[in-house]
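pls read this protein:
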Amino acid sequence: MEKLEKYRHCVRELLLDCSQHKPAHGEIEVERIFDVERDHYQIVFLGWKRQTWIHSCVIHLDIKDEKIWIQWNATERDLAAELVASGVDSKDIVIAFHTPFMRKFTPYAVG
């Protein structure tokens, strides 16, 4: 349980830091979504850019079976490396948006 709490803390701190950067153009809100009960964590951009409605999941992380699954990362940040730097074991990180075949060529978990 201690490991799970540590990973939850690392994910929340990472997303709080990531959410400090608002898009430069448009009236875009940055929403942090932390579902601690089910271990789903997201950053969503929403609002208007000129006449276009923006609703985009920028980052999506889940914690499953005591591993952090990076479901989506539409930023230039290396979230996995930042998690490792915060104390998460690289074997407890899954780059979920890579195919299972490609995951085995990374220093992270396959699944």
Notes: The chain has one domain: 2-103. The longest strand covers residues 52-64. The two ends are 20 Å apart (CA to CA).
